[in-house]
């Protein structure tokens, strides 16, 4: 009886040392995707449409939260050398409806405006909001469609409010399925 009691005490006392909890062997802090796009913009400066490029990077920290950095370069098509260039960073909230991942975002940054015929080239602070969706094609590729509304502060006549429509493609740097 004492032998069984000693064995039981030994097992109970050693249970904390011999716990059977598995330690995670493959964890990651988030998913990274980097992409490029074609942008059509309503510059809010004259009646024309600007066209250009976009580059973006998303780092999704949790199942629905992420950070986005973005660059746009759009310009006049009539030869007057006018362009708008923006540098932005902010947060995004996304959903997963395989294979579609719609999102909303809020950004801050700087906008560089080059007036027609290079009269003046100035930087302005900006705030932006946007909605869009990534469409998953396989493990690594994503197609993107996005609408973004920007508000440039300090621009003459009460500010500048450009609208951007971007269509892009991105590469995602992880092969594991995102949060299900």
Features:
1 helix; elongated; single chain; mainly beta; Porin; 180 residues; 7% helix
Task: Summarize the SSE layout with pairings.
Blueprint: H1 2-14, E1 31-42, E2 50-60, E3 65-75, E4 83-94, E5 100-114, E6 121-137, E7 141-152, E8 163-172
Helix segment tally: 1
Query: How many strand units?
Result: 8
Strand order of the largest sheet: 1-2-3-4-5-6-7-8
Order of helices and strands: HEEEEEEEE
β-strand amount: over 45%
Spans of at least 5 consecutive residues whose pLDDT stays below 50 are 15-19
* Fraction in helix: under 10%
What does this structure look like?
The protein has 180 residues and is mainly β. The chain has one domain: Porin, CATH 2.40.160.20. It contains 1 helix and 8 strands; from the N terminus they run αββββββββ. It has one helix at 2-14; strands spanning 31-42, 50-60, 65-75, 83-94, 100-114, 121-137, 141-152, 163-172. Strands 1-2-3-4-5-6-7-8 form an 8-stranded antiparallel beta barrel. The termini are far apart.
Report a brief summary of the structure.
The protein is mainly beta and 180 residues long. The protein is 7% helix and 56% strand.
């Amino acid at each position: 009886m004492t032998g069984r009691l000693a064995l039981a005490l030994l097992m109970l006392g050693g249970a904390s040392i011999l716990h059977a909890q598995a330690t995670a062997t493959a964890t990651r802090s988030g998913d990274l995707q980097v992409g490029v796009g074609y942008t059509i913009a309503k510059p809010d400066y004259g009646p024309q449409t600007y066209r250009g490029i976009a580059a973006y990077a998303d780092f999704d920290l949790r199942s629905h939260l992420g950070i986005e950095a973005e660059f746009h370069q759009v310009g006049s098509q009539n030869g007057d050398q006018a362009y708008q260039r923006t540098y932005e960073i902010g947060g995004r909230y996304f959903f997963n409806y395989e294979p579609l991942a719609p999102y909303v975002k809020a950004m801050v940054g700087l906008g560089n405006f080059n007036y027609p015929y290079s009269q003046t080239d100035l930087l302005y602070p900006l705030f932006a909001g946007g909605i869009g969706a990534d469409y998953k094609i396989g493990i690594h590729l994503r197609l993107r469609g996005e609408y973004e509304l920007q508000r440039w502060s300090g621009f003459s006549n009460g500010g500048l409010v450009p609208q951007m429509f971007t269509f892009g493609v991105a590469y995602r740097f992880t092969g594991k399925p995102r949060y299900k």
